[in-house]
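TICKET #2291
ISSUE: user wants both folds in one file
ATTACHMENT 1:
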Amino acid sequence: MEDLPEPLLADIIERITVSSDLNSLCLVSKRLYAVEAEHRRALRVGCGVDPTTEALTSLFSRFSNLWKVEINYSGWTPSHGDQVNSQSILVLSHHCPLLSDLTLSFCAHIDDDGLSYLPYCKKLRSLRPSFAPAVTSTGIFRVAVSCCYLSVFHLVDCIAIDNVEWLEYLGKYGSLGELVVKDCDGISQCDLLKFGPGWRKLQRFEFEVNGTYWLSEPRDPSYVSGYPYGYDLCCDSLKDLRLAHIITDREIGLRFLLGKCNTLETLYLEYVIGLHENEMISLFQRCSNLKTVSLRLKPLHCEDFEYRAALTDASLKALAASCPMLQVVELTFAFCEPD
């Protein structure tokens, strides 16, 4: 090992994807320890990692060429000790100048002050806060304004987000290609339309609500009845669309996407209440590039305890005839008779 040229060692190290294997490799020799640290591109921090500033400084200064960092405290309990906090983001940003992808999951002690340090990461392109209860719209707006290369943004179960000024800014001045919003009660379908011109550049969009969509009177906190606005929006670049657990109306909310998309390759609809079959047929006929279709639709109530599938043979024939590139089809129906 000691006689191998460094490029070959680096190639070997980059082919090892399991963190425990990399850690074991580092114990073989000082040279491997140094080469592995120089070429490691991804790191996961969570329960069991010493969150003190001194320990994190030592950790991140060793792996100074990181591209991707995930801070994940899923399953954390007080017995695990303290979590990293906002000061930890400052340490990360100072010692990892190449950082381009950051995920924050179940980080209860990272707030807007922590996000305010992200502009030091000049190459940051992807940010994924998930269950970050201390992060507010103010912190997200700072990121939107300061991280000018941001192209991927996921916002999942962030309960303190209560306005979308940041989304309007990203729509006007940003370059988002991927936007995911899930289980954020403070963001409505109508709020998302304020993304405005940003829809033109978006290639992947996902929106999901944790609502009581299966009840006879489903509830969707993102639905705003009678909201007045125009639909003069373009989404010609959208290739991947995923909507789940939302209520739609012909002139309200995100339903407009199904009538505007022409270049979809992936379509995922799960319990989107209010869709009509003729809309699905029209969508299939327009989107000839579809490769993957997954539909999990709420059955239609006929009478008494009888239900029928939301789609008939007509829509399936349109899908088969109009989408020659189709590779994956997943159709899920419940409470419907086999015939």
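ATTACHMENT 2:
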Amino acid sequence: MKVLDAPPAGVSRKIDTRAAIIEALSQLLETDERVVIFGEDVGAYGGAFGATTGLFAKFGPKRIWNAPISENAIVGFGLGAGLTGLLRPVVEIMYNDFLAQAEDQLQNQTAKARYMYGGKAFPRLVIRTTIGGGKGYSCQHGQELVSKYANIPGLRIAVPATPFDAKGLLIEAVHMDDPVLFFEHQLLYGTSTIGAEVPEEMYRIPFGRAAVVKEGADVTIWAYSRMLHNAYNAARRLERRGVSCEVIDPRTISPLDLDTVVASVGKTGRIVCVSQGTDTGNVVHTVVSRLYGILGGSFAVGTVTAPDGVVPMAPNLEDAFIPSARRIEEAVLKLAGKAD
């Protein structure tokens, strides 16, 4: 299977992230009889966000089936199935908010299984879930909890921002021997202006390998998932003000590619790290801390996150809560010494 970092030259087919997820799952089911899929409404209904549409009709109830409304049972059953070595389960938890219902199975069992069995058992499990925000779903369906789970050793964390990355990272995740939390943003299932060129054949993107989405010379912007698109839009606007931005998509949070970031900051001398999650304990501060450990204090830093609070439901308050391209632009201009 090919390992790709970017769409090969000549690939012109464009699909959205939902189609990329469905295609990856379909190809995995076709090529590996150990792959099974289960979760709430993933069968004939096609999943809450349509990301398993058509798979039940194609592969039947022995390969994809609906689970009871128990996130704890879904993750626990997935872990047990993966530990047998006979199956490679892909389970779906409808919203990342609902991972709290599976906390014991996720944090105390899945993340620690490989260590507790002395490396002799492999928790081969992929947990697909979604990030909310921007849809008015508020506090129990609209959170972004990536940083919380990035702080649990033993879990691999994927945060695809484009259709190309979603397909390649998902195929890679299913073939890994470690448990993977695979975060899909609900507002990225539709058409993408970045990375929409997706090869039809199977390919994989290794975890821990970031992508430089846009090259630049003045300021580095590090952003993942939906925030990558906000960062890219901010960078394009900043060009008109004479500020050249390099935009980096980490693709995965665990493992975290620091080499690409270090090389970029060594060139620009400035970095703005962006996350939709709330500020305290956010992974952006981990990135900054590790950069200081490597580069010392030779660069300027800015961070853009949501405030420490509950995601509002009112559209105007939610818009103010979630980091926007405008906020990213203002943070970059401040670092570049060009703020109004």
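RESOLUTION: both attachments delivered.
EXTRA DETAIL ON ATTACHMENT 2: The first strand starts at residue 2 and ends at 3.
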